[in-house]
Amino acid sequence: MRRIIEFVLTFAVCWFAVDVARAAEVSAPAKAVAGSDVSLQTSGSGHAALYVFGPGTAIKKDVRLGDNVSLPLKRAGRYTAIVNGETVQFDAAPAQPTEVAFLARPSRVPSDKKDVITGTVFLFDRDRNLVMTPTPVKFDLAVAGGRPESRNVQSRNGVAYIKLDSGRKAGQAQFTATVGSTSVRRVVTETASDPCNLRMHAQPSKNGITIETDPVKDCAGNPVPDGTIVTFTATWPAGRSTVDARIKQGIAKTELPLQKATVSVASGVVVGNEIHVGGGM
User: Fold this and answer.
1) pTM of the prediction?
2) Contact 29/41 with Cβ under 8 angstroms?
3) Within a 10 A sphere around the Cβ of 175, how many other Cβ atoms?
């Protein structure tokens, strides 16, 4: 009789252990998406506490074993679920990108320069998770009257990056990044480059000789901005004189005394023509 009782007790303990083990089982889906409800399957009977923790998340929920448990998880990343000491891990991937953070640098560039404009895009889903899945991003750069440029780039680790040439036409360039139906626009000001074909002429004035440039433009025909420095240098047998003049309304000018001299003109590293003044003027 004693042996029978021992056998029954041993069987009861083993059955209870198996039942507890079964009750502790919890499974997670192979694929979960952040921002959507995630369903966890429990097994067994009775009630237990379900613990779930992961990126910015800590949840305790009383559940009835054997039911599906639906949880809203907004953050992408790895989660751990625990029921009665049994653990399962699963990953929640970001949702589709709906938000675009677009950085365009710099805000002003000279026209007709290679690789001077950079665009950087960061892709986020509606809950601000960085979308790591490779995603096509379209970059467009256009200025009124100029030739538009368009490039497609595949994002990598949530980021898409591009370098573009500035256009030949000066003006307000519209720089746009598009992902699906979402577009973000930035403005990049393209200014004239260095003066090109710098030329000047002279004419008599009341107090001497006025030296004046032709309208100053870059090699693409864009007017060089007012305020740009133009240097006039006059050389004569007794010495030399230099005058820095700013461009106003497209031209730069200065006045020299009426004497025989050779005058040259330059702006930065660009040298213009040379003229001889005085004497017969």
Assistant:
1) 0.73
2) no
3) 22
